[in-house]
Amino acid sequence: MVLPSFHVHLSVLAVIGGLLVAYLGAARRHEVATGERLEPGRRNRFLGGVAALFVGASWPLHDLAESYLYSMHMVQHMLFTFVAAPLLLTGMPAWMWRALLRPAPVRAAWGLLTRPLVALVVANGVLFFIHWPEIVSLSVRSELAHFSLHTLLLGSAIVMWWPVLSPLPELPALSRPGQLIYLFFQSLAPTIPASFLTFGTKPLYPIYATFPRIWGIDALTDQLIAGLVMKLVGGLILWVVIAAIFFRWGHEETTEGWDALKFRNVEREIRAGMGR
User: Fold this and answer.
1) Minimal CA–CA distance to 198: which of 226, 174, 218?
2) 237-251 pLDDT, tens per residue?
3) Taking Cα atoms as reference points, which of 179, 119, 180, 181 lies closest to residue 111?
4) What is the CA 86 to chain-centroid distance, rounded?
5) Which helix (H) or strand (E) holds 73?
6) d(C-alpha 145, C-alpha 142), whole Å
7) Fewest C-beta in 10 Å: which of 38, 115, 210, 227?
């Protein structure tokens, strides 16, 4: 068997379709009311994020992750965390985010969650939680649990990216040096579960050892691949973003002039963000 039998996940189609209808419908109503059209680049980023969700949640990746290989489970997580989340975040214009955050309790909760230190704790807390062996076993036994955990992962990933990519000046992103420090710390925590996966001498997730083997990959090799995907792919993406921010910061300083206070006040800025 090269791939599992083709299977259409109707629930995924319903969720993806609903997301697209809500987004495009809101954009159309906003255009009629204000004359402001959705920027093509922003729309394309959102559609790219939706496409990443579809690929991660549909055949064959979903079927491989749920019934055969934990490494494919990790590929799903990489897609949701490092592709879908930043594309969805930046694909939504400021007015759409303001509409979502208009209720005062929602706005207050989101403001708390997206403080840099809180965002780090939330994102990495969810990361450790969904990789706990009992939680992984639950996710492959229950379709509802699987969907709920992926929703939790996507939400925490959007929270994680907010201090870097925020579209709202009232809940702003960190400065360039602040973003560098923030993403550096974000790159550290995943090395812990990745190390357990990479260097484990027995299956960390026993339920995956009971699944049929595919492509000649045994349970320990599958676990090793999953650890490498988490560490190398996730780490590489973060460090590419760090490098891009660093060079953009250098370009801005070259064109706009050096402001030493930008770097001196990074700690103060992060503390202010934690307290906003």
Assistant:
1) 226
2) 999 999 999 999 888
3) 119
4) 7
5) helix 70-79
6) 5
7) 210
